[in-house]
């Protein structure tokens, strides 16, 4: 009887789910709609502004700025994969989603995260060539090499994201249809799956360890060599510029990897942490890079900041030029009205004086 009951339970697999992110904030959910919407609009606007600046300015059509623009475009895609459903969950307590929609969201989340990692590797290679082999930079960092790096980034991201999604699609979800998360995250989906999930857990852990460990080793070796070479530059201005540029890249790397590391530790070790805290760490991990990267590159990269300021000043000057004719016209209208009032007063005065006489 028990075995038949268990087998019948395992034969039932939910294909529609309810996303319940931040279950402890039942009454405060509506108040989060406006700030989260503002955050989403700010992420899209800030990243799009820097991308537009790089595309519009010819002198920014260089490998480093192209890679920055690609990284920010990935940030927009990552935020769009997460935040619309997140906002819908704040409006409705239980946010419905199908299995196919859940798998698609999970694919785009991990695909964009892995693209972030791969683009950071490409940027480290670009800075390594620029600082360690400056005379050969234009010969090595060609458009062909950039294309190859883009293909490598896409292939490597697909090679990690697709197996995770395929293995998740083959699982049976019989425990419950409620996902206690605001997105279809891999670990959140496995928590409601039934059957032997040893391989799924090992696959997810192995993928994360291999990619993160491999990337961190390469990034650490590259930037150690870059910083050492930068200190060997005799010119103080060139040395400061090289270290400043590397500082921007290192800030982005620390933001992405530290937030991801803290989230993984909390999910796998700290079982006593509440679900709301776990979801908050996931939100920081998924959304913080998209919010900080345009600020880091837009403010700390002098060339991008200069063009953004120039573009904004041009827009303000055009508005002022457009307002000047309106101001002149209003001044002329006021003067003509004053002239008419003066003329009418001048015509009335003789009549009044005549009556007095």
Write the layout of secondary structure elements.
Layout: H1 2-11, E1 16-19, H2 29-56, H3 63-91, E2 95-98, H4 99-132, H5 137-140, H6 143-169, E3 178-179, H7 186-190, H8 198-231, H9 236-268, H10 275-300, H11 302-356
Parallel strand pairs: 1-3
Antiparallel strand pairs: 1-2
Helix pairs in contact: 2-3, 2-10, 2-11, 3-4, 3-10, 4-6, 4-8, 4-9, 6-8, 8-9, 9-10, 10-11
Number of helical elements: 11
The biggest sheet, with number of strands, parallel, antiparallel or mixed sense and barrel status, is: 3 strands, mixed
- Unreliable residue stretches: 1-10, 343-357
CATH topology: Rhopdopsin 7-helix transmembrane proteins
Q: Give the spatial strand order of the biggest sheet.
A: 2-1-3
The total tally of domains equals 1
Q: Tally of extended strands? A: 3
Structural class estimated from helices and strands: mainly alpha
Rg estimate, integer Å:
30 Å
Going by CATH, what is the homologous superfamily? Answer: Rhodopsin 7-helix transmembrane proteins
CATH class category: Mainly Alpha
Q: Which percent bin holds the helix content?
A: over 70%
Name of the CATH architecture = Up-down Bundle
- Mean pLDDT comes to 81
SSE order, as H and E?
A: HEHHEHHHEHHHHH
Task: Characterize the overall form.
Answer: globular
Strand content: under 5%
* Ends apart, CA distance between termini: 125 Å
């Amino acid at each position: 009887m028990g075995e038949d009951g268990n087998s019948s339970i395992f034969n039932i697999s939910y294909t529609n789910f309810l996303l319940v992110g931040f279950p402890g904030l039942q009454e405060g959910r509506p108040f989060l709609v406006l700030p989260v919407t503002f955050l989403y609009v700010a992420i899209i606007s800030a990243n799009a502004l820097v991308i537009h600046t790089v595309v519009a300015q010819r002198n920014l059509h260089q490998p480093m700025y192209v890679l920055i623009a690609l990284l920010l475009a990935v940030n927009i895609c990552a935020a769009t994969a997460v935040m619309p459903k997140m906002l819908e969950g704040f409006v409705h307590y239980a946010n419905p989603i199908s299995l196919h929609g859940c798998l698609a969201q999970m694919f785009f989340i991990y695909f964009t995260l892995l693209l972030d990692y791969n683009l950071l590797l490409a940027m480290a290679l670009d800075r390594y060539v620029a600082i360690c082999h400056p005379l050969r930079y234009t010969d090595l960092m060609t458009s062909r090499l950039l294309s190859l790096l883009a293909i490598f980034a896409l292939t490597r991201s697909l090679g990690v994201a697709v197996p995770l999604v395929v293995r998740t699609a083959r699982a049976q979800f019989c425990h419950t249809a409620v996902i206690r998360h605001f997105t279809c995250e891999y670990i959140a989906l496995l928590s409601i799956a039934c059957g032997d999930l040893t391989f799924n857990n090992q696959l997810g852990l192995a993928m994360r360890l291999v990619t993160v460990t491999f990337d961190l080793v390469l990034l650490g070796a590259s930037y150690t060599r870059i910083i050492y070479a930068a200190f060997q530059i005799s010119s103080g201005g060139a040395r400061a510029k090289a270290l400043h540029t590397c500082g921007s890249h290192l800030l982005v790397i620390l933001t992405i990897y530290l937030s991801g590391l803290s989230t993984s530790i909390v999910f796998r070790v700290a079982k006593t942490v509440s679900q709301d805290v776990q979801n908050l760490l996931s939100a920081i991990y998924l959304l913080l890079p998209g919010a900080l990267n345009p600020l880091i590159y837009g403010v700390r990269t002098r060339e991008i900041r200069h063009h953004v300021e120039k573009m904004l000043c041009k827009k303000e000057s055009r508005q002022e030029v457009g307002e000047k004719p309106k101001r002149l016209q209003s001044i002329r209208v006021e003067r003509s009205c004053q002239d008419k009032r003066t003329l009418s007063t001048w015509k009335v005065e003789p009549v009044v004086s005549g009556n007095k006489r």
